[in-house]
Fold these 2 entries.
Entry 1:
Amino acid sequence: IKAVGSLPGLRIPFSPFSVPGGVLPATWWNPGFTFVWNWRKDRNVYRRFGRDTTSIVSFVHGSPMIFTRSLEVGRQVLTGGLEKFDKSPDLKGPFSYWGPNIVDEYGDQWRKHRKISSPAFNNETYASVWDASSKLFAEMVSAQGWSSKDVVELPSIYSVMFKFSLTIFTSVGFGAPLAWSKPPSQGEGDNLSVLECLDIITNTLMFAVAAPSWAWKLPFKWFRRTRRAYDIMRVFMRSQVNTIRESIGLEAAKGDIKLGKDLFSLLVHASDDVGGKKGLSDDELVSLSPPYSFSPIGDVFSFLYAGHDTTAQGLTVALAFLALNFDIQDELVSQIREVTEDRDNDTLDYGKLDKVLAAFYEAIRLYPPGPIVPRVAKKDTVLNVSDTDEPRMLFVKKGTHVVVDLVGIHYHPRYYSDPEVYRPSRWYAKKQDQSSNVREGGDFTGFSFGPRSCIGRKYSTTEAVCFLANLLRDWRVEPLFLVHPNGKAESVDEWRERVFRADMMLTLGLKDHNVRLVRRK
Ligand code: HEM
């Protein structure tokens, strides 16, 4: 309690982020890992304790924690200097299963990872993302046979978005072929594509982190399939690394290294340099046991997870809201048509589609794929946690966890009027105020803020705007109602109730979500 400056809050047996806190069923005395989401309405801790910064102190297991839904406190934590608040070993998440990486590292190690990766995020990359997204969209329409249809039923929009963003990521990030009908696979005879492997890995990463080695060998289908998925991915990553190595080697032999600026090439090249020898062996590259030298695999996986599922979830949520809001769709479509009208061809232009971007932002505001931003105090420090006119300084002891709660910020009536309402115009209203597009680096906090904010923000918005603009231009998105056993179709309210139930594994989002597309005349 002293560690959190005696700040009022929950006193419970287990920290929400501890193993028992996460494994035991969530209840009033065990908020569980997803409480920032599940308790955002009825059991809201900030309202209960009458302040925007509150604490959780567990008396059996787990570190003392401070949670904040105050943007002002969030800024002090995330932009006040990494020597005060940063990640730490006890915040290492499942990404570290594959090796050290940009998401989990801290201090100088993190700087190294960020410095190596940053050059991959430039205007050339965003142009490739735009180009790849347009091409893949066209290929998807043709491969799925949509061109000849007026109505298309999509029983799972999430699986379409998952495949779309993963294919873009493997193409732009790794240089894999861009193909809708033939997702990347690891040669003949493999019954799982890389796409399926990643799906399995995304859903089993917690198991992989926690399971003892014997558990992998259990003779049941689920375990066999999971093991197979991990094995295939290791082989796939190794072959990708080798391909890039070879091309770097060939260039070097010609005395002319033109290093690809894609993420994977930069990481592989860096691993060769930092390893201090002509390259780590294949086994080292895909090694799963410490001590690691600099291996790109940890980074590659963290980018893969941080990069594709988040965008897929953001798009899935945006389409769910749009399906219920034809007026907003019409507004976006008029902008999309305006953008293409004065051009010789019907090329779309990211910079002019601020309403489409706003529709994506608003989806992420309501269902932030990365709902919390956790940090640890690196030294004894002080936070100004005044909510009202009365100033209040809070002493924070070194080692205390401080969690910036993006769900709390995004639903806070102090920052958003009618916070529960999907209203993209709250982002484009800024256009008049500031004579600029929705502000890329401004108030939108869904990608976090400060030096460790999302490196893939523009990457993600480029892909999302391209997908949404292409889809909405030709199709109206509507809910796809299920039919009850008694033959009656679901009502809109039942659809909403079913679809807007959030699911949180590595990211927060919707999974059970079906829509139909009706061709616009
Ligand atoms: C809708 C899409 C996305 C959302 C909402 C999102 C959100 C976030 C958030 C909230 C963080 C901060 C996490 C923290 O500090 O604890 C973050 C970090 C990060 N994101 Fe994203 N992200 C998205 C897309 C992407 C994409 C497309 C990529 C890569 C291509 C990416 C790569 C990363 C990386 C590497 C970090 C760690 C940065 C660091 O610590 O230096 N993200 N993201």
Entry 2:
Amino acid sequence: SSNKKRVKVYARFRPTSKFSHDNISFDKDGKVINIHARKNVSSEVVNNQLLNWSFRVDGILHNASQDQVYDTVASDMTLNTLEGFNSTLLAYGQTGAGKTFTITGATENYKHRGLIPRAIAQVFRSVEERSDHAVQIQISYFEIYNETMFDLLSTLPESETASTYDSKLTIVEGEDGSVCIKGLSMHQANNEGEALNYLFEGETNRAIASHALNKNSSRSHCIFTIHVRSKSRTESNAKYIHSKLNLVDLAGSERIGKTGSDGLIKREAMYINKSLTFLEQTVIALADKNREHIPFRQTKLTHALKDSIGGKCFTTMIANVYGEASQLEETVSTLRFALRMMRIPVQPAITEHYDPWLLVQEMEKEIMHLKQELEMNNTLANRSQISYDMLSESQIADINKQVRMYLQRKTTEIDVRNLRQMNMVFEQFRNVITEMEQDIKDRFRSKFVLLDKSDSEALIALQKAGIPLDEDGNYLGSTQAAAHGGGKQKHPTSPKRRSGKKSRAGGSPTHRAPISPSLPAPGDHGPKGIKSGAAHSQVVTAQTDGAESTKKDECSVSGELLVDDRSHSRPSTPPPRPVAFENFKKEQGCEIYRILNENKSHLQSKKQIVHNLAHAVNATKHMIDGTRMALERKQNERYEQGEFVNEEGETVIDEEEFQLITQLKNLKQTYRHDYEELRNVKSEIDYCQKLVKQCTQRLVLEFDNWYSESYMQKNGEANPLSWSVPKPGVQHPMRLQLANIPLSSEDEQDKFQRLQETMLGDQEEIAFQNARMRVHRRKVNEQAMNQAQPARRL
Ligand SMILES: Nc1ncnc2c1ncn2[C@@H]1O[C@H](COP(=O)(O)OP(=O)(O)OP(=O)(O)O)[C@@H](O)[C@H]1O
């Protein structure tokens, strides 16, 4: 079992008649290689010091046929790949030791074919046997030569996606740690023959260089991959498996010195050495449990093999070695590397993928199912006419309409039946508000010239045109004012005025106004303190602190300077009713508005209570029904089985029936109690609703009075002069009337009431006493009327 959790290693000796039995021996179990050597064997210096090594591997392939090698090393891996595991088989070793022979084999001799053609044959045999799976096989083949990747199948004419042999391939890592070679052509193989064609095509493209040790030595790392995509034909889900079998023929591992190479060959050897050194470093790091960083990216080889060595991948290495005494040093070096490989842990696992298209179909089915479930629940709960479909254009338009009505206070409720509608309500709120903002901006634009405050050229042009601006670029007044010219003029009472600072434009009789918000601010058009001055270009406003200030006809919208292009124009009409109403609620009508809100929140909380109670009553009702049915069942059973009667002739019931009766009694009690409570709260709600209605009416009425009093002439037209604060001594007729009522007209009851209010501090008690007094007063009035009528008839 320990073998399953690490990389497997097999040592394959290249057949030779000069096998050094003196130096190399195997243990009987066929897994241990013992090497005995004298130090400096190669230097031919007489040295009697013996060195012994012992290498335990997973298997020794000595004089083994290609058949045996495949069965021992690759057969299971191929099957694992078809099951969904990624698998990698590497051939590592000295140049000429038989790596290519092992992986590809002798192409001219069928008997000597290597692991790749055999794996291809087994894959297609197995696919035929697996009729319950739809399996798709694809082939890719690339080499890494001098740290550059080349697609060995890019030359195929049918390869649409493929590019040229020397086109750039790049390594891309997926979020799940998988690696893919971007630009590498993938070729669908429908049968063994097609797959073999790809192998031979790639073989002819391999970079081959003559070499001192091996005339046909491959100087590149070659990776042949069989990609398997398999999906069950019996299961209807979107799941599928994507796995791959990498067969890697590494370049020779010998040291540069030994090959005697120079020039290009030397450079090749340098790259090969570098990549194999990094492969070794990566292998050491992978074997170290405490290492967090694995240097995969150091070379193309390790980066491309990142998801193919150890980890979730079944990994096997064949260490190709020579048996001759002259190659002992390299053999030892190769076997040392092999032992390091054996320390790499593996935890093979299948990674399942989901076909996005099928997944969408599955989810659609699930949505259908959930909708049906919802419908059923709604039917059971007596909620009808609820649709969960996407909202239609007309429904959206309807929500938009409701939102507008709500904003105009024409309605207090918006009909919402599901989450989708609720979201749409919010969206429409946003749309309407954005629209309103835009509308306000547009209105400003139609009335003012909008300049970008940071546009210095435009500001200079304005100044040249005689339009006064201060040092901050704010408009200082009207063109009329500018036309008057002359020295600076300071407004005596403006809190914003900067005394002593000279206006750049000079000559403006007006002064700098604060940049006011784009929307008419509450109070801007309020009746208080806005003085009419049609002949002037400025509007004098009385500030809340009593100071006077000058308000200009310019505003700023989002940092833009607004310059009134009509110069003298200023508001000559009352503020729109909605704006005025907002102000009224904050000022004159604040008390009644506060009471209205209190009543509303009271009403709201009562509604919540009713909602909860209704739920409780319904739940109790259900429980009563259930208990009643259970009791009836129980009683029927008793009748059928025959009743027990005690000595007194009373029917004897069992414990369960007794419990049911008690439970039913308690439930009925709860039901009655809750129902009574529900009725009470409902009547409270009725009362609260009336209060809210009354308050609303009163608020509106008072506002109407106030509005017409403040802005309208008697004939109902807007009174521009009424923008001003009522001039001292000029009072509204109604106020005059009230003011004329002598104090002595306060009747005795009023006096008493005021006395009470001063004596009784408690607000609640005052309210109570007032109410009592009002009722009493009404009765007295009624009596008086009743007495007066007969007298009139007379
Ligand atoms: N097990 C074997 N049986 C028969 N011939 C073999 C065996 N192993 C290797 N050979 C022969 O040895 C020669 C070199 O083998 P091969 O090309 O496979 O070596 P290599 O390790 O791939 O070399 P390089 O690192 O240069 O690619 C070839 O002619 C091959 O046929």
